[in-house]
Specification:
The chain is an alpha/beta fold. It has helices at residues 2-10, 52-69, 89-106, 118-128, 136-141, 147-161, 180-200, 216-227, 250-258, 273-279, 299-307, 330-338, 344-347, 350-358, 367-388, 395-407; strands at residues 15-20, 27-32, 40-41, 44-47, 74-81, 108-109, 208-212, 231-237, 240-248, 271-272, 287-290, 312-314, 340-342.
Length: 408
């Protein structure tokens, strides 16, 4: 596995597109790790301090993710080094998408990612430049679709991703309407935990969970876990969080989901971040969902959770551990040997899988069909891992080896 990983990590990406904005300090990169299957896919993220190496590592992560989610294409990522809270954000994005339009037309498919919203930013801006859908490059480059096929596939993508959820099983209650894209990644992260206990053994009901990050992924995962009877005992967000050792009720978790301000936890009696960060890792939980930014979880935090009874980690964030390595640094390796670590490319493949499903010939545009397909995809990946390794350790290593053998 180490040899395969070294070979994959050290291989130069096939295409690197570099951009400097003419009217601001923004700079950006599209990294296409390979054009496997004639195309590549990966979302667009924006944050201050982002660099090319981060985009390269995320493109490689996407390539591994496609071995689980499909289609059999290369991994890519777009990254813009710019403050997403800057009022010039929309103008920067417009100039960025204008510059990368030839890639998006022919062989690169993108979507939302950190600080970039698929439905409110990516789709309207790219549509304005004549792109039918942000995944059009994959439809053209990978599927070589005829005009009628292209119209059908893109119609399914447009309808499916923006579909307003009607089935109460897949959305929290409340006045706001949610779309597939709002809930699907968090759903997959929670399903990974549910499938883990059903495959490796154990009852999910009554397990305690800590959630890191209260954006779409963390908050949705918490809702779906609470439905399964998991007790959410701690939530840690950027500015603070909550601890309830008895566990919040399903209604309380749904209420916290609905009352978010953007991706921010809003609640009475929030514990300030510094104080919460000292306490939360010792309160005891069997399940941990890292769903904030990449590379946040430290060795000290990991050790404290393991000591307090941790059993399984389902990675909502890409590369959640504070290691410099692309896939597998010392913290990740240590945790993989101590607990059941479900890697990001399985746990958070929900959105990538939705795109693949909606581009297929058998897609049905119902809530049940879309969410059911994601659940089956994650279950299949975990069954493959279990067949090769039925112990509760080294799940991430085993899963990564299965993926790399398809790529190297």
């Amino acid at each position: 596995m180490k040899e395969l990983l070294k070979k994959f990590e050290n291989k130069q990406p096939e295409i690197i597109f570099e951009w400097s904005d003419s009217e601001s300090e923004a700079e950006g990169w599209v990294v296409i790790n390979s054009l496997r299957g004639g195309a590549a896919g990966g979302g667009t993220r924006m944050r201050k301090g982002l660099d090319r190496r981060e985009v390269e590592s995320l493109a490689k992560t996407m390539e591994v993710k496609f071995t689980v989610s499909g289609p059999a294409i290369g991994g890519a990522k777009s990254g813009i080094n710019f403050d997403p809270n800057d009022p010039r954000k929309e103008e920067v994005l417009r100039r960025w998408y204008k510059a990368v339009m030839p890639l998006l037309k022919n062989y690169y498919g993108t979507g939302g990612d950190l600080n970039i919203d698929e439905i409110h930013e990516v789709i309207p801006i790219t549509e304005n430049y004549g792109l039918w859908h942000p995944q059009e490059g994959i439809v053209n480059g990978h599927f070589h679709a005829t005009e009628p096929e292209k119209i059908r596939k893109i119609g399914q993508l447009r309808q499916g991703v923006s579909k307003v959820l009607e089935d109460p099983h897949y959305t929290p209650n409340g006045p706001k309407k949610y779309k597939v894209a709002d809930m699907i990644t968090g759903f997959g992260v929670a399903e990974a935990v549910r499938h883990y206990y059903s495959i490796w053994g154990g009852d999910i009901k009554g397990k305690r969970a800590i959630i890191q990050g209260w954006g779409n992924v963390g908050a949705a995962a918490a809702c779906f876990l609470a439905v399964e009877g998991v007790k959410i005992v701690g939530i840690i967000d950027r500015e603070g969080g909550l601890i309830n050792k008895s566990g919040f009720t399903l209604d309380e978790i749904r209420d916290l989901f609905i009352k978010r301000e953007g991706n921010k936890l809003v609640a009475k009696g929030m514990i300030p971040f510094a104080e919460l960060n000292q306490q939360i890792w010792d309160i005891g939980s069997e399940v941990f969902i890292p769903a904030a930014a990449s590379r946040l979880v430290t060795k000290d935090q990991a050790e404290r959770m393991v000591k307090a009874g941790l059993e399984v980690i389902s990675c909502g964030a890409n590369v959640p551990f504070a290691d410099p390595e692309i896939f597998f640094g010392p913290i990740g390796v240590w945790l993989d040997e101590k607990v059941s670590l479900i890697p990001d490319f399985i746990a958070n493949c929900g959105m990538a899988r939705v795109f693949a499903y909606l581009m297929s010939d058998r897609a049905m545009l119902t809530d049940e069909a879309i969410f059911g397909d994601v659940s089956h995809t994650i279950a299949d990946a975990l069954h493959l891992t279990f067949e090769k390794n039925n112990s509760k350790n080294k799940l991430a290593e085993t899963s990564l080896e299965i993926a790399l053998k398809q790529l190297v």
